[in-house]
Structures are given as structure tokens and as C-alpha cells.
Amino acid sequence: MYGMLIDVTKCTGCEQCVAACVAANGLSPEAADRDRAVTPDGLSANRFLTLQPLGDSGRFARRSCMHCLEPSCVSACLVGSLEKTPSGAVVYDGDKCIGCRYCMLACPFHVPRYEWDTTTPKVKKCHLCHERLGTDGQPACVEACPNQALAFGDREQLLAKARGLLRDHPDRYIQKIWGESEWGGTSLLSVSDVDLTPAGWSVQKASAIPDITGPLIEKTPWIGLTVGASLLGLSWIIRRRNEMMALKAAEVPSAKGGEDGEVDHD
Amino acid sequence: MTDRTRALKDLLWLLVFFGAIGILFRLWYGLGPTTNLSDPLPWGLWKIANMVAGVALATGGFTVGFLVYVLKLERFRPLVKPAILIAFLGYGSSCFALLLDIGLPHRIWHPIFMWNHHSFLFEVAWCVMLYFTVTAIELSPTLLERFKMEKAAHFLHRIAFGVVVVGISLSSLHHSSLGALFLVTPSRLHPLWYSPRLPIFFIISAMGAGLMVVVLAKMLYAKLYDPESVFGKPIRPSQGAVCAIGSEPREEGRDMPMLRAMAVIAACVLGVHLALRIADLIATRALGSLAAGTWESWFYAGELLLLGIVPVTLLAVPAARRSPAGLAIAASAAAAGLLWNRLNVGIFGYFQDAGAVYLPSLVEWAVGLGIFAAAGLAFLYVSETCSVFDDAWRERLSASAATVPSFDKLSGVWYRALSSGLHRITLLAVAALPLAWVFLGPQAAGTGRENPVSPPVALDAQRKVLWIDGDADRIGVTFAHASHKERQGRERSCGNCHHLTVPRDHSTPCYRCHASMEGVTRIFDHSKHFHAVARAEKLRGAIPANHSCAVCHKEGEAESAANAKRCMECHAKDMSPRHGPPETLQLRDACGYRGAMHRTCIRCHEKEAKAQSKPKLSTCTHCHGSFQPQSPAPAPEETLIAGTNSEAKPSLG
């Protein structure tokens, strides 16, 4: 599975990566340019990738789809228009999407963007240039980086490389690989000498979101069947009781009082 | 028909009318210009109020079915049909709102064929589809009766029990799944509302409040068409009043005991919900956030008050329980509390994390309210003309033409609205709002998606000279674009000004290069210089630095860059002789960090790159971004390039 290693200490913020991304995806450079200024975090349907200044440190964090190993968006999409491919890319199939925007809500990194200004809007985000990956190609941003701040390759190898960097330069880097385990791990890994918390890593949970919802949703058919079966059973018992009481007394007892309500909340 | 009924219908029709206009706008312009939805807050009024809350308010359909068909509480039988009608309209209106909310409405059928069984939304979609069908089947006997198709109605009556059981199973699934939708946002939803037990809270609160909505609907029907059934007949005081409404003593309405019993059941459910919520608050250690006094904690408290405390307290007090007014207040509070809860979970709870606020736009309000109003009108229509609450419709139908309740047409509304002066003015005012919106255009509605800086205007065809007036105050400057480009280094110089990481790059300000040396520039730190000069020259006085001006600037002239010493007069020793900049380097060449670096260093770097055949020497990255250790600090003897670079980096952002 492919991954990307971002060395924040090497990034100068020139955004050649963004320009390459805009060109590779056939987006409008003017719109991409404008959206950097007018959107809160620089991401939009015209910019799948942005470099976010990290305070006054002079460093820049890459903000784009992190290509989670267990993506929340993929589990959320009701028609399965998002997919985690074997190459590692989380890709979007615009032909299936109905536009419910649940993926946008589900993403812990606030990444998917929407084409708000069209009447047939689609979700837009980085797709790791997955159509170029097969033939030894690299994502456009990786190719464009003039300072080799982005490294592309097998995720495990990149992880080993990142650990090597941290080991060899303990004074240069914070001893942490962002994306190693957060939200179940991401395909995009970052090493940095500045804390990346403000750049979308504010909450770091080791468990993936589908691990929260998955066990629950597996149970739902059984819950439905159990409810149905217990309703039938309950109704049979009550009907039988009513019959017995009707036999016993000539009159059917009518009022059963308010405490019957207690039965229906379990 | 009473005036009250007529007024209510007029209001609903107006809301439907404006909703229809809003729908046209939404379909014509798309979601962006007509709604205030945004990337940080992608779910808004239609999805949360109309869909999530609308479905929850219609829960009565399955809870009343449970009480009557499963628990065999026959006393609630008269409420089955109203509850089914509410469920059908609630689900129908929800689906309609969802149709408008999703970006590609023509693909609403996709979930039927394209499955992702890992998604709670998929489950919700299927259960809502199936349950909507179930409510349609449950409702159809009522409609078939109306059109005298007794046979089909009889068949449907026979399968009613099975349909009800299927409906309850489906409901128990999707009402909890609606809560589970928000489980995917553990980092985004406010901790007061996020809980692993959201699905349980959603179904219990919906069951309680759904029963209250049925009570409320029955009371509304009684108020409009059949007051005696709930509010009772006026009686003389001497006979002793069971309940008092207004000043006039009345005997208790014949349906009051039934409504009271149902409301008590609902209150018990809501009480359980309230207890669970408080227990959960303690378990998730979010109790602190409730006491924090933020607006979220007030919203949360208000929600618990309406959804739990008010109805439970009112139903616990015998006097309130026996009065129709008390019952109505309790039921309304529960319904409002449920709506409030869903808005909190679905909209308000996300504000803090998104760092943004969402308020529905005019179109969203119009459509959202319009859909609710349309459901209300349909409710009135069906309960007037079919045997939903009672069989009075038969009498209404067979009564003389003078008293036949004709269902109001839109033309009638206009006619009445235009016939009175007050109505006319109100109508004009209400109509003026969307019209003003139309003429001022979507951008006037404040979508905030435009570039706030006006772009430069070319004064000639080749864009040699631009007119720059970024703030559009008509005070601008002409900017010699072509000669700037020429001097900066032709094509490769674009990035000097059009640098993508410079925020609002459309208006890279002039002062970024043409900075006063008094201000902060990167190559020349004026304040640092005058302290350093004072130290180097061993100046004396209370503030030695004040005497340092004369060291660089000519005395007797206004101090400016023009009459300052050339950099090299002092800094020649900082340069290695071989790589040093030309002797002619002057301050005006070094206007700001970028100018200093790009215009003085690059030329030499390029020359040396060729001379020493080291091509890397002239690449951007030779200076930009190569890692510089923070300590030890570079000694003053080090080259200017290295020293300035490490210093300069922090401010590039």
C-alpha cells in the first residue's frame, strides 16, 4: 500500500505542489488562487491541497485528504461512492454520489469539499492521483516539490524511513510520526519540528471511526428481528391473558392505568 | 368553518407559497447561493429540522400502534388513525425535504441499488423507505373508506397487525440509527451531546415526544372542529367543575381521560430519557461542560427542560394533568424540546469545532417552514374529509351546501388577503422580502464566497500598466506592471509578488517591497541596527541609540534610505571577497527581504553555479528551507546568506 511522507522541515511553503495539483486535476488556477484567500483553511472544491502556515514558525503543514487506513468517509457514504483502493488512495466515484454530504461531516480532518456553486455539485478532494500510481508514477504534488519535502512509496518503507529520521536527528524532529496511528493510521505521514496540532490534528485518537460504528451496525439486523419476534411474543401473551380473563370474568377489564407505559421503553 | 380554522389555513397557505418560491430558487441556483451551508457545516435546517426532527416527531405512528396492537390497550384505538396520518405526513415531508437538500435530487433512488452496509445512513435510508411504505399501507384503508372501496380496505385491515409489527421493527431500527449517524463525529460534535448512547437517547426521546405530538394533534383537531370532545361542555358553576379553562367552568371532555393516559405514558418515557441523559452526562464526565456557562451548556439545559422537566412536572401535578391547557403545554414543550434536541445534536453542537456559525438563509427558512406547513395543510385536509378522528366527515359531506367545508384554495387566500387593508400591507411586506432578495441577487444575501479584494484593472491591452484599487474606495495607484516584471527578472519573477502562500495574493500589497525601512523588513531591521550601531560606536547618553542616526544618515537632511550609508560601507567584512555582492549595492536595492535576497544574491549565485559547475547553487531550495540548526547560533563571521536565511525564515508565513 502506497503512502506519502511529508517532511515539514523541508517545506518552504512555495506551493508548487498546489499548482501542480491544480494543473493535474484541470482546475482553475484563478479559482484556486482566490479560494486560498477566501476560505477559512485554504481548502475548497478548487483546491484539494493547501499548505497551512504553522503560526510564526515559518513551517507549513500539508492539509489534504490524509487517506486514512480505515476511512470514516468510506464507512459513512450510503451509496459507496467513496472507496479505499488497494493502492492506498481513498477515491470518489462521482457517478454514484447523491450529494448527502455525510462524508464531509464524517471526516475527522474536515477535508471533503463541495461544489456549492453549481447545480450538479460533486464532492472534491485529493485522490492521491490514483490513476497515475500503477505505472511507477507519483502524485503530481510529489513530482512538483522542488525540495523533496514529499516522499512517495510503500507506506511501511516510509514509516521505517521516518523512524530512521527521528532516530538520526533527535534534535531536529519532534519524536512523533503524525498519521502513524491517529484515527487508525493514515497513508499520509508527517514528521515535523513544529507541533502539527493546529493543522487538523487537534484530536488524536488511536482508534478508527469505523471501529466505533462497525460493531454497532453489524447488530442492527438482529436487533430488528429480535424486536419483531418479541413483539409477536408479547402480543400473543397479552392476547392469551385477555382471553383467560374474559373467560374468568364476564367483563373485560378496561382500565389498566398509566404504568403500562413502563413496558415500552425497554 | 370557524374563523380560527380559516386563519390557520391562510397562514399555512402563505408559508407553502413562499416555500414553493424557495424551492424554485434552490433548484435554479443550486445549494451554494441559496443556502448558508458551508464546507465546515455541511448539514443544515432541511436535513436536521425537516428530516431528523420531522421523522422523530412522527414517531407516534409506531408507538400508538405498539400500545394498541401489541399491548392491546383498546382505549387508545381512536388515536391509531391520527397517529398513522401524522407518521405518513411526517415521513413524506421528511423525504421531500431530503430531496431538496441532497445535491443531486435526481439520484435519490441510488441507495436502492447501490449498497454500503457499513453506513448508518444507508440503514436509515432503507428503513425510512420501507417504513414510509408501511405508513402508506396503514393509512390507505382510511382513504379507501373515503372513496367507498370497502373491499380493499377490509383486506388491508386484515393484514394490519403484521404491517404494524413490521413497522415497529423498522422504526426501532431507524430511530436509533438516526442517532447513530452522529457517532462518526467523535472529534467534531460537542462533548455535551456526543455520547456512545446517542442511538438509545434518540429512540427513547422520539417515542416519548411522538406520543405527545399525537396528543397535541388531537387537541388541535378538537380545538378547530370538535371542542366538546376535549374541552368539554360549559356547565353551570353550581354543578361543580372538574376542570377550569378560562373563567368558565366546564365539564371534562369525553376524550380527556384517554389523552391524559397517553400523556402520562409519554411523560414516563420522557422521564426515563431524562434520567438516562443525566446518568450519561455523569458517565462521560461532561458534567463540567454543563456547568461551564457557555452557550452550549445553556442550550443543553434548555433542551432538558423542555424535553424532560416541563412535561414530567406538569403531568405529575394532578391539577395540570386534568386541565387541557396543562396537557397542551406539556405536549408542546415535549415536541419543541425534541426539535431543539435534534437541532443541538445536528447543527449547534458542531459550531465550536467548525469555528463557524450557521444560520439558515431566507430560502432555507421559507422551504423548511413551507414543507412543515404543507404537511399541516394535508393533515387538516385528510382529517376534515376522512374518518381519522371521528366520523363527523360523513355528516359534513351529507350536510347542506351552506355548511360544507370547502377546502381553501390559494385564490381564496389571495382574495381575502387583498380585501382588507391590514392584510394587504402585511402581504406586501412579506412579499417584498423575497423580491428584494431576487433583485439584490444572491451575492447580496451574504454568502461571503466572493473575493473581497478588487482585482487590478489593466489600463492598456498588454497589461503594461495596471490600476490598483484593492479596497475599491476609488483611491488607487497606477502600477507599472511591465517594468516591474522587467526589473525583477522577467518570467521567473512572477512568484516574487504572486506568491501563493501570501494570503490574499490577488493584492500582494505594494508595501511588501516598498516598505519603509522604519517598518519591519527582513534584510534590514532598523531598530536592531540603531541599537547595534550605538553599541559598536560606544555611544553614550540616557538612550545611546538616539545618537546613532548620524552614524548612517547625513546630518541636516530628512532621514531616508536615500541619504543613508551604503550597506557595504559597514558590511564589506561580512562578505567573503570572492562571493561578495557588487560594491555598488545600495539600500534601495535591498527593499525588503525578498528584494535583498533575490536581487542581490541570485545574480551571483547563478554566476557561481556556472563557474563552479554546481547547478544546485542557483536553485531556490539552496537557500529556502534547508534545515538550519537553532543552536549554536550562526556566528557573525558566517556569510550573510546563511545568517539572514535562518533569521528570515520565521516570518515567511
Question: Helix and strand layout, with pairings?
Answer:
The complex is a heterodimer of chains A (266) and B (653).
Chain A: E1 2-7, H1 16-24, H2 29-38, E2 49-53, E3 60-64, H3 72-76, E4 82-84, E5 90-92, H4 102-106, E6 113-114, E7 123-124, H5 130-133, H6 140-144, E8 150-154, H7 155-168, E9 188-191, H8 209-248
Parallel strand pairs in A: 1-9
Antiparallel strand pairs in A: 1-8, 2-3, 4-5, 6-7
Chain B: H1 3-29, H2 31-34, H3 45-57, H4 60-70, H5 80-101, H6 110-113, H7 120-146, H8 150-158, H9 160-180, H10 198-225, H11 227-231, E1 243-245, E2 248-250, H12 256-283, H13 287-291, H14 295-316, H15 318-322, H16 324-346, H17 351-354, H18 362-385, H19 392-398, H20 410-419, H21 421-440, E3 457-458, E4 465-468, E5 477-480, H22 481-488, H23 494-497, H24 526-536, H25 549-552, H26 567-571, H27 592-611, H28 620-623, H29 640-648
Antiparallel strand pairs in B: 1-2, 3-4, 4-5
What is shown here, in short?
Chain A has 266 residues and is an alpha+beta fold. Chain A contains 8 helices and 9 strands.
Description of the structure:
The complex is a heterodimer of chains A (266) and B (653). Chain A has helices at 16-24, 29-38, 72-76, 102-106, 130-133, 140-144, 155-168, 209-248, and strands spanning 2-7, 49-53, 60-64, 82-84, 90-92, 113-114, 123-124, 150-154, 188-191. With 266 residues, chain A is of the alpha+beta class. Chain A has a 3-stranded mixed beta sheet with strand order 8-1-9. Chain A has a two-stranded antiparallel sheet with strand order 2-3. Chain A has a two-stranded antiparallel ribbon with strand order 4-5. The longest helix of chain A has 40 residues, at 209-248. The model of chain A is unreliable at 255-266 (pLDDT under 50). Chain B is built from 29 helices and 5 strands. A 3-stranded antiparallel beta sheet of chain B has the order 3-4-5. Residues 238-245, 400-407, 442-451, 517-522 and 625-653 of chain B have low confidence and may be disordered. At the A-B interface, helix 2, helix 3, helix 4, strand 6 and helix 8 of A face helix 1, helix 2, helix 4, helix 7 and helix 9 of B.
